[in-house]
Amino acid sequence: MMKKIFALLGFLLTSILLPGQNLLLSSPLEIPLVLSGTFAELRSNHFHGGIDIKTQGRSGLKVRAVAAGYVSRISISPYGYGNALYIKHPEGYTSVYGHLNGFSTEIERWVEEQLRDRSKNNGNLYPSKESFVVQREDFIAFSGNTGGSMGPHLHFEIRDSRTEEPLNPLEFGLTVLDSRPPSLRGLMWVTQDFTDRGNFKDGDTLDLRALNIGVPIGINLYTTDKQDGANNNNGVYKILSSVNNDAVFSAEYRRINFSTSRFINAHFDYQQYYASGARWTRLYELDNNPLKISSTEETIFPEFRSSKGWITVAKDSLVNVTILVTDHAGNKSNTSFYILGSPMDSTFRTGLSWDQMHTLKEDKIRVSIPSGAMYRNTNFKLVKKGQGKYLIGGGDVPLQKSIEVTWKLDSIQKGGFGWFAWVEAESRKQRAEIAKRTGDVLTFSTRNTGTYYLDQDLIDPSVSLAQQDPVSRSGSQFKEIRIKAEDDKTGIDRYSARIDGKFARIDFDYKHNLLKVIIPKEISVGSHNLRVVVIDGVGNTTTKEYNITL
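Above: the chain's sequence. Below: its structure in token form.
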């Protein structure tokens, strides 16, 4: 009884004991905060590290410092957070602002000078503590759509400066209107040997005898949350699962660790995601899962026992399972159902052990799987499918570590060049795997499983001048020349630009296949030579020269 009380107290009181109570933030934008993404919600291969704030469908909104501090880092990248700015605060936290279109005048001028001095298009820059001291609500940047953003918004984070671990920003005083409870969109049972699963509803009784289940079962939950002002299906804050009122599983999304974030593939049901595109949270834990977001209770009672969230119900016993889901505003939803027990079978299939190394061979291919690459014992396949195609693992098999694939070219292939591998993986999309070639053997490391086949990329990237005259950069004091650059197979890998023989920085907008050549402020009015080099993933190279007039 005391164990039950402590579990519930721990679950209900954590919202009172805020980790950020010594730092209350002002809003980073001058508009009401409406979220398109919440902290730690389930994303592809990672937990979301912050909150995504809507910017009314446009870029260029003024972004302001949420508290006093100094700019400690500026990151420029075509991918991920795009243009991002980091502010350290004396209370021990760091605020992060991502997908920015540009910075304040002083910061932007410094960024461009630093990158040009280093002859770098992208990178991380670390100003001194004295360079950019900011006060609460100081203007620091413009919101945008850079990097991996799929639409204009501001990605905002709060991190523990000591560990760099992201924390839930809503625990630092930001106001987001939310009167809507979480949505419980589906329930699913899964056998511990992963050979069977099925959907059910609130109030149902799972008769394990009728289902002919003789192994422990786990429960998958499909749940999302919406705040006021938007219909985005965002993540929840807490989940608690109990059997006969005894807590067996809980998850609390308050802090994540980047080094373990990819273990999200153990936290949600990857097989179901591959099949349907929906991320169902596992209310049980796989063997290879060090995440601290979730916890389980080891329980043994006459009617049932639970280990790592897996539930075993004694023959002919009936137990009641309840699930409580809470969002950050405290809105709650719950569901309840029953499980009727059946005799247990002590033997079930396991597959390859996740904690051992394995080597698989088939025809021209060898696959080396390191220990800890899989999240559980898995029936990992290497099968020839015909017409030069091979199934490696299957697209529904996620990997924590890279496997190494060696592929021997046949007598016809070995005379050619530009070889790489296509893989049909997550969401059935094709992606290119670039290989290192040694003699007649291609070698590549990958964390993508699926159907593989070889192809050649023999065509140089397509490069053309998209706009003859320089255009002003959004929210910037600089101008740019836009170059269209495309490659239909292995993609744009490297690029460089020179104006009159001197380095010019390129801002690569991969979503629109644009190389934006930034014109240095000191270049004189008149005619100039612009030379652009673009290289794809296997080394095909295109060089173009243009006369530009400034």
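Residues 19-172 form a domain with the Glucose Permease (Domain IIA) fold (CATH 2.70.70.10).
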